[in-house]
Every structure is written in C-alpha cells, then in structure tokens.
Amino acid sequence: MINENGLILKASSYKEKDKLLTFYASSLGKIQVLCKAARDPMNHWASSMDPPLLAWCSLLERNHFFQLTDIREMNVFPGLREHYRSRLVYHALLQAIHYTEVAEPAEEPFRLFLETLLGIEKAPENAEWFYYRFMIHFLNLQGFQRDITTCIQCHTVISDDREPFYFSLDTASFLCPECAKKELNIVQVSQNVGSIWKKCQHSAPQDFLKEKAVFFHNFKDLDRIISVIVKQVFHQDFVSLAEIVL
Ligand SMILES: [Zn+2]
User: How far is the CA of 203 from the centre of ligand 1 (A)?
Assistant: First the structure.
C-alpha cells in the first residue's frame, strides 16, 4: 500500500463505471491509477474526482498497476476551474507535462508544477507569467538550461540590455551578435522577451503575485522561443500556450 500526496491531473472514463486517473506525485512521477466504480453516482468518490485536484491518495500496487483505495481532497483549485485564462494555462501545462514525460519520480519538477498551480490559483490575472516561469524552470530541471545572458557558442556574457541578442531556430539556443552572423535561421530577441525571460529564470512564484497583468500578446515571441526549444528537445507535437489560444 502506498500513501501519497499528489495531483490528479486528468480523469477519463474507463469501462462501464470506472475512471482512469492521471496521478502525479513526487515519489512516483506521473502514473495511471484505476478508480473502481468512480462513475457510479452512489459511490462516495463520484464527485471527488474532478481534476485538477491535490489529494492524499492511498494506492494499491500490483505489477506496476495502481488502484485507488482511498482519497482525501486537499485543494480543489476553484480559481483554476472558474477563470477562462487559468483553464487555458492549465491545459497548456498539461501539454507540457504530457510531452516532456516526467517519467522519473522527481521532487523538484513536481514541486515546481504544484507551486505553479497554486500561483495561478492565487493570481489568475497573471496565469501566463506562471506558465512561462514553469516552462523555463522545467527546462532547467531537465538539463536543457537556456541562459539568455550567455552565448551558447562562444560563452560571451551579454549583461547589457541594450546589446542585441539572437535565438537560433536551428539549434534552439541563444547567440551573441557575432555568432549569429554564421547562422541562417535566427530571430532577434527583443528587449521585452529578454527581460521576461530573465525575470522568469530568477524569480520566486510569489514575485509574480504582484506582477502587473500583461495581456497575452506580450508573450508571443517568448512563447515561440520556448516552443522551438521544447519541440526540439522533447517532442515535435508539443503545443504551446500561444498555439492553444490561437
Ligand atoms: Zn557568441
């Protein structure tokens, strides 16, 4: 028997009365859990399976197959359900988790994901900030760090915000002006993107609670860069937040 706090990310119908839950926890990674009779209206679990949900779960494991034996709700994220923008961002986060396959049980990606959801819950008007902060930190945790202040080829540090910086669509990394001359598929990184990236890279979630609300179009270039990186290092089918919104 395994007792674990974790997130129920998705619930889908299974067989006649069952549900298949996508359960994400730091000690288990992302797993599928069978919840027997969850769709039976007489079942006391019937209404408590609505994702996203932070819950204490008791699981029975047999041959890497998990079955839910008990559940206690801890946080039902009402804000994430009610706000349209938060729901879009949540959907985009699920895409990220899906295509980047958090296969290994790992505490840090889980904590990052949980604090992202809690942040969006607290400040739905800044949902996009939390999404991009998550993506940048998640890439770092998975070993695909992209430091926007350092050229990947010559390691020149660009600390001055006025100096132009580039992003290579071929290598999915940042370049100084000199190294960018040798590349064909490059885009110039705007100051706006540079400063958002730096902010996402170095800020704690509570810093975004007071962030002034920025409308989605401000994030378009940033979204494109992240999308190119994730598609290259994880999966071509990854869909970014901007691609979901459009
Ligand atoms: Zn360089």
Answer: 26
Mean pLDDT value across the chain: 88
- What Rg, from alpha-carbon coordinates, does the chain have? 20
Rounded to the nearest angstrom, the distance between the alpha carbon of 134 and the centre of ligand 1 is 27
Q: What is the pLDDT of residue 44?
A: 67
Spacing, Cα 145 to ligand 1 middle (Å): 17
Q: How confident is the model at residue 76 (pLDDT cuts 50, 70, 90)?
A: confident
Whole-number Å distance, alpha carbon 65 to ligand 1 midpoint, is: 49
Separation of alpha carbons 16 and 32, rounded Å: 17
Q: What's the CA-to-centroid distance between 233 and ligand 1, angstroms?
A: 21
Q: How far is the CA of 166 from the centre of ligand 1 (A)?
A: 10
Where do the domains of the chain lie? 2-75, 78-146+177-245
Give start and end residues of each alpha helix (H) in the chain: 78-82, 84-99, 107-122, 127-141, 177-180, 191-202, 220-233, 241-245
Q: Which CATH superfamily is domain 2-75 in?
A: Nucleic acid-binding proteins (2.40.50.140)
Give the distance (Å) from ligand 1 centre to CA of residue 180. Answer: 7
pTM of the model: 0.90
Residue 28 alpha carbon to ligand 1 centre in Å: 41
Average the pLDDT over each of 108-112, 205-209, 237-241 and give the range with the smallest value. Answer: 205-209
> What SS3 state is found at 183?
coil
Lowest mean pLDDT among 18-22, 50-54, 113-117, 159-163: 159-163
